[in-house]
Amino acid sequence: MSGTSFLLYQRRNSCPERWDPRMKIVAVLLFGAAMLFTHDPGPKTLQLLILILLWGIAKLPWRVLVLTLLSLSLFIASTMIYQAILLSEPADVLIQWGPLHDSIRG
Length: 106
What we know:
By secondary structure, this protein is mostly helical. Helix content is 56%, strand content 8%. It has helices at residues 21-37, 41-57, 62-86; strands at residues 93-97, 100-103.
């Protein structure tokens, strides 16, 4: 049970914990939408810094943040791979690394 304790609710007596539950749901939905619709590196970096700041304010373990970000990065990478394969046209270069490249044949 100790290995999965990060999945269980643990009272931290932090500021976000005292917010109204509806406000927390709306804030998470708005932040998630902003993360999905922003594509520039500048705002993405700012959003990541805000996430780290809120994580610190919430007094949550940093190990959980790292595990969460790793699992999200795997999800995002797999989504990018699927989109690259399914939405590409024949002869579009999917991967290019120096002189080597891979494309879909029609």
